[in-house]
Design brief:
By secondary structure, this protein is an alpha+beta fold. It has 12 helices and 16 strands.
Length: about 425
């Protein structure tokens, strides 16, 4: 007999099913054992009379196999359950689990550090594990939408010779006889592949930042959703593309992750047809006038939260494109603003007070780019591998990077971005 998944049991009322999964909950009432079985699709209630558990192998979180008949019962969850005809304990539990998997997140009452230290077990919890079904659909939506827009998915090196952010916050690695680094971003390679003739490229991959932050917003390894597009007129083509991308992703989530969204009591936010744009300088004026807060050249996390609150009240949008960051605060390849070369045609996308995207138009002129590199105190010769394609008709281009964990975190109102990483890497954690 083929296995039936928990979500499909209701289709077999009056028939027989073979179930495989874990003991989510076990209740013994005299000679009657009620077993809630959990598999990757959900849970189903089963019951068995007179089961001999003298060896103690039937426990919560043991893996089991059940053969039984599906019967209706108004008292059971969803109005049906499985009468067990044969029960086999595949693998029992050998210790008391450090985490109560069958409780809600609030009922678990376990510190995040404990949940992360026992990550494979904590992921069995439907709420905790459900985060990654949502994250997976976000990534699927990213790929599917960009493919429909003519983007080629690429894979770029994660061991690199130079940093994309001017040589800071790099993890150095010994690469045979020379020093190399873990990639901060696929930025150089995205641009080179645009110039190679592909015009539009995208990537889903890990990136590494050796920043000594230890906050609820930061990870030292995270999944970056990148795209780069050529022959653009200005950076608004990039923000328009991201707006439509988010609309596609969220529409798919409503259809494919209804169960997980219900667990978190989440209503997917509406992405407006045009996400509001605001210059950084304008945000500074608003913060000073309305919140008595000085920005001091850049916006900090508190400022991001306040300005998003302001925009939400004024426009109803959970999203805001913050634009025109100073040249000194952006990488060497950021395209200067035509009206004021001290500013750049760059942006961040803020979602409910948190930056989830950074992007902008890039410098495509070879002489201008080499001059910008020298202006940062760097030697263009160190970037010959990157600069070569700019000598041969590089088109105007730009792109962005979305933090998959941050987007998931904000969507589900998680308290810490680590909750949206399978096995987080932060300032203090390198296992499991």
């Amino acid at each position: 007999m083929e296995r039936t998944l928990a979500k499909d049991v209701k289709e077999h009322i009056g028939g027989q099913v073979l179930l495989k999964g874990w003991v989510h909950a076990l209740r013994v009432m005299g000679k009657l054992n009620f077993i809630v079985l959990r598999d990757r699709t959900g849970t189903v209630q089963t019951k068995i009379k007179g089961y001999d558990n003298s060896d103690g192998s039937l426990k919560e979180e043991a893996s089991i196999k059940i053969l039984g008949a599906v019967v209706t019962d108004e008292r059971a969850p969803n109005g049906f359950e499985v009468d067990i005809e044969k029960l086999e304990v595949i693998s029992t539990t050998f210790d008391t689990p450090p985490i109560q998997v069958n409780r809600s997140r609030e009922q678990i009452g376990t510190r995040l550090e404990t949940l992360l230290s026992h990550r494979p077990l904590s992921l069995r919890n439907p709420e905790i594990g459900g985060v990654f079904k949502i994250r997976a659909e976000i990534i699927w939506g990213f790929r599917e939408f960009l493919k429909s827009q003519g983007f080629l998915e690429v894979q770029t090196p994660k061991i690199v010779a130079a940093g994309t952010e001017g040589g800071t916050a790099l993890f150095a690695v010994q690469y045979f006889e020379q020093k190399a680094y873990l990639a901060q971003s696929p930025q150089f390679y995205k641009q080179m592949l645009v110039g190679s003739g592909y015009e539009r490229v995208c990537e889903v991959g890990a990136v590494y930042r050796a920043e000594e932050h230890n906050t609820t917003r930061h990870l030292n390894e995270y999944i970056s959703l990148d795209y780069e597009m050529g022959f653009i007129e200005d950076f608004h083509e990039i923000t328009t593309m991201e707006t439509e991308l988010l609309r596609f992703i969220f529409a798919n989530l409503e259809k494919s992750c209804a169960r997980e969204l219900e667990l978190y009591k989440i209503e997917v936010p509406k992405v407006p047809s045009e996400i509001p744009h605001m210059k950084l300088s304008e945000a500074g004026d608003i913060l000073k006038k309305n919140f008595k807060k000085n920005m001091n050249g850049d916006i900090d996390p508190e400022g991001e939260q306040l300005i998003c609150k302001y925009v939400k009240e004024k426009t109803g949008s959970d999203f805001l494109f913050m634009t025109h960051y100073p040249t000194e605060n952006r990488p060497m390849y950021a395209f200067p603003c035509e009206d004021d070369p001290k500013l750049t045609n760059s942006f961040d996308l803020l979602f409910r007070g948190l930056e989830i995207t950074s992007g902008g138009q890039r410098i495509h002129d070879y002489e201008q780019l080499t001059s910008s590199i020298r202006g940062r105190g760097l030697n263009p010769a160190d970037f010959d591998f990157y600069l070569e394609i700019f000598k041969y008709g590089m088109p105007p281009h730009g792109g962005l990077a979305i933090g998959a964990e941050r987007l998931t975190c904000q969507l589900l109102n998680l308290a810490n971005v680590r909750e949206a990483s399978f096995f987080p890497r932060d300032r203090n954690r390198i296992v499991p």
